[in-house]
Design brief:
Elements lengths: L5 E14 L4 E12 L4 E4 L6 H4 L1 H8 L5 E5 L6 H7 L9 E3 L18 E5 H4 L20 E4 L3 E4 L2 E5 L8 E7 L3 E7 L6 H5 L7 H18 L2 E4 L18
Parallel strand pairs: 3-5, 5-6, 6-7, 11-12
Antiparallel strand pairs: 1-2, 1-4, 2-3, 8-9, 9-10, 10-11
Amino acid sequence: MLAGRPKRLYVLDFGTFRVHSGPRDIGICGYLVVTEANERILIDSGFPAKYIADPLAATAEDDLGGFGQVFSLTAANSLAAQLAAAGAGPDDVDLFLLTHSHIDHIGGLFDMPRALLVLAERERALPRPLYWSGAQPWDWPERATRTLAGDTALGPGFDVLQTPGHAPGQLSVLLDLPKTGAVLLTGDAISRPGEIAEGFATASDPQTALQSAKRLMTLAAERDALVIYGHSPEQWPTLRKAPAFYD
């Protein structure tokens, strides 16, 4: 599907969310991968744009307030602004890889009609995107889509891994960069390292989530990979954010 090997990885900053339990402030991240063939792959896309326009009204509409609140989310954290920081725009995205369909990952689902949507077969089989437990207002879009039934190499040095548990079709990504080497993007399969010891109590399927996490950490050790977690409060401030990149 992809002609070139990964050349650059941009970490995109889609804002900060405060989880009430803890409390814990987590970064909402996405990624843009650029290949040697100048292909652009967006991984996840943050909250819906209405959370920038009016976060209080959006939180109330989606019944999200019992879980947490948007802590910092401005126009600079929008999908368009973060892509621009990485030297791209929505029309430049060739492939949109959705790791799962929760509200903080799916916000740009309708914003890149030219991009091929790639997601797990089990996620796409859901009647609607998961969005949030209090609301599932969106239908799946009618657009070019490829679903993945198992682990899949999208191209050289770009492997997508099935890591269910947090969500039925949760995906993680293993990249091979020229200088950095192996990079494992766990996504919400491991939001933060502490989840492993805690047993993934809040996952939709804790036992499967733990199995997926153990598999990922074994793979990371075998490949000596840089591990970037989905929502680690400790790691988030240390990551290079666009326009900086990993290469």
